[in-house]
Amino acid sequence: MAERSFHVARLPGFATMAVAVFVALYLPIFTLVAYSFNASNSMAVWGGFSLDWYAKAWANEQVKDATVRSLVIACFAAVISTAVATMAALGTTRRRAFKGQTFIYVMINQPLMVPEIVTAVALMILFGLVKTVTGIHGLGYLVLAHAAFCVPFAYLPIRARLEGMDLTLETAAADLYATPWATFRRVTLPLLAPGMVAGAMLAFVISLDDVVITEFVKSGGQDTLPTYMLGQLRRQLTPEINAVSTMLLAVTVVLLTTFFLLTRKKD
Amino acid sequence: MADDVTISARHVIKAFGQGAAAVRALDDVSVDIRRSEFFTLLGPSGCGKTTLLRLIAGFEMPTGGEILLDGADISTLPPNKRPVNTVFQSYALFPHLTVAQNVAFGLQMLGKPAAEVKATTERMLALVKLEAMAGRKTAQLSGGQQQRVALARALAPQPKVLLLDEPLSALDLKLRKEMQIELKRLQLETGITFVFVTHDQEEALTMSDRIAVMSAGKVQQVGTARDIYIHPRNRFVASFIGETNFLTGTAEDGALRLGTGERIEMPGLRASPGPTTAIVRPEQLRLGKTADGGLQARVVSLVYFGTDTHCHLHLADGTELVARLQSPASGEAGLSRGDSVGIRFAEGAVQQVED
């Protein structure tokens, strides 16, 4: 059967196409990484190997400042969105099907469907209003905005984990004298933990990489790493930006690899 | 109520769904389960036996009626407030805990002191012969071992009643036989009331003190294995437990007149209009020569089973009967296809049953 069945990999040109796609995906990234080690200050001419740009970026106060801000926002956003997503996932899976379930599902995943620029403009207008009325400024607006658009990313792995969980385990805990809270803490939560860690990591990465919403919501002096880089591109281009990008890429790759390992099926 | 009753279900109704679409999984079920007995709920799938078990455990609330435990109504108590534990069909062992932690779970939730939890856990693991596995994760155990952990976990809090939901159905035949003996031993050693759900009549007959045969949301008959096998109350019980021959005819005073016109002596039978059904177990048929009398029949086929031989017979009107004959030393039943025989029945073996 398998011999005769249709197989995409056997179509003519499949290998060529696959190679072309991978080149298109990874050539720009490899170029970026390669030029971060460029000794010359040009983005186009190779002047030999050097770690100068890393040293420069490391010493750059603005880069440091933006990096710390990015990490702080990403941490808060990951924690808040994971907590919200966990509650949402429990609320949508631990009960019988109800009317409007799909609607709720769509609502939770709204940030995945609404164009980011629209959310960004909407947040800018709303937060602008709030800032005028309350007079409160600070990082809180960015944290809130990030937490909000990170929810669906945290929600998906947590929901998947919950759906794969045997409901009888919770019944068994109740049978063994566990109160509903004890059942949640002793059985549901430990079994859910890998999904929550995965969700938090995904949220962290999404927050760390965000440009559009941050650019619209941030006040003066609230640059995150991506918006700082965007700002730099408007002025002068040096391989320092490559070095910063490469470091950001490294962090993202490490986190996403961990996410993949955590969500991978055991068997 | 009698002092020796542990669980008493009274007029229990359980309906699933709403309004016209509602299905009654239990339809006015009343049953008393005695202290320290091995009580089995036996019936085909969908008969309501698991629903009754879940109502006793507290996983479902009855739509009507009540469930008493030692005389107190527990119908509305949540499962964690009932001194009743369950062995689940899928075992439902906690995968993130070790064997010992699984067994200790109920005791910890009851707030027992650590020393007692440890001592009881060790005793329970010894009871199911799993001391060596205490530190393992449950996924590393075989099916039979997981079954034992589930048992130890449910027995550890010393419940008043242990509920077992088809716990042996996932095991292979040999292991199932071993676990049947093991379960019976545990029940006798602990003195705890066992309520066992199964669709396997052999399992029910060999292990139970008493059996409730269920069908279509109702209890059809409650009694010892012997009661139910020898005196089934109706057609369903007779056909579900063991193999049975059905004889339909008209009741006359002291005898049943078959469609063939022949009479079977049934002392105590009173004449009544309409058809009457009687049953007779295959091992209660005696085959002889036609000249010796009895129901006249023809041998249709013979099936050799080792210890016995099943002889399929047709009466003159086409009624099919099976006789189970003990195989003689030679292995030859002394009959062959097409032989004419006379059937006699052991005394009292032919009994009237309700339809």
How would you portray this structure in words?
The complex is a heterodimer of chains A (267) and B (355). Chain A is mainly alpha-helical and 267 residues long. Helices cover 73% and strands 0% of the residues of chain A. Chain A has a single domain (60-263), classed as MetI-like fold (Orthogonal Bundle), CATH 1.10.3720.10. The longest helix of chain A has 33 residues, at 61-93. Chain A is globular. The model of chain A has no long low-confidence stretch (mean pLDDT 86). With 355 residues, chain B is of the alpha+beta class. Chain B has helices spanning 49-57, 99-109, 114-127, 143-155, 173-190, 201-207, 225-230, 235-240, and strands at residues 5-16, 23-34, 38-42, 64-69, 72-73, 84-87, 161-165, 193-198, 210-215, 218-223, 245-252, 255-258, 263-265, 272-280, 285-288, 295-304, 308-315, 320-326, 340-345, 351-353. Chain B has a 6-stranded mixed beta sheet, with helices on both faces. A 5-stranded antiparallel beta sheet of chain B has the order 13-12-11-14-20, with no helix packed on it. In chain B, strands 15-19-16-17-18 form a 5-stranded antiparallel beta sheet, with no helix packed on it. In chain B, strand 12 and strand 13 form a beta hairpin. The radius of gyration of chain B is 25 Å and the shape is elongated. Chain B starts with a strand and ends with a strand. The chains are: A mainly alpha (267), B alpha+beta (355). The A-B interface holds A 166, 168-169, 171-179, 182, 186-187, 190-191 and B 57-59, 78-81, 84-86, 88, 90, 92-96, 105-106, 109-110, 153-154, 157.
